[in-house]
Amino acid sequence: xxxxxxxxxxxxxxxxxxxxxxxxxxxxxxxxxxxxxxxxxxxxxxxxxxxxxxxxxxxxxxxxxxxxxxxxxxxxxxxxxxxxxxxxxxxxxxxxxxxxxxxxxxxxxxxxxxxxxxxxxxxxxxxxxxxxxxxxxxxxxxxxxxxxxxxxxxxxxxxxxxxxxxxxxxxxxxxxxxxxxxxxxxxxxxxxxxxxxxxxxxxxxxxxxxxx
Length: 212
Fold this sequence. Notes:
Radius of gyration: 23 Å
Strand order of the largest sheet: 1-2-3-4-5-6
CATH topology of the largest domain: Chitinase A, domain 3
Number of helices: 2
Number of domains: 3
């Protein structure tokens, strides 16, 4: 985060002043020896000696590392590099995790237990379909994925091939983790204000984000 127009002020509790951080104007209030900042979008941060730590709030970009484990503690996925999402209902992370992260800062961690309905949903046997093999490529194998449309919903569904017979192929439209209780553990590495372009597109640009 680039800080410009910095000016020294007396550290007196209750003193208010304006500070520009990037393209965001923040109002600072001295509180017990440090500065609490609030932006026009309600963003909060606190100046702690060497810099500014912004709190996670709506319309901030959150960068984090994470681990995803099953209910027995077995590792399912571990982020090899940080991921980033826009906080505040942009569907970039599980809603229950987003709720737990609200108000946290870089360096903070949290652990969230996700029931099936909080993660990938309950397993739906109706999403298992048996199709004729001629609908698929000649080299179709178990594990391949294809996009189709649900017969009842009409929505696009990603189907995974679970069995291949001589003239039939079994596909499953459930997420591989559907029906499972999961444990999500993460550590926040950075919090910043989302740009106008990111807000318009609904996803993060640049490092750890979406590349056009």
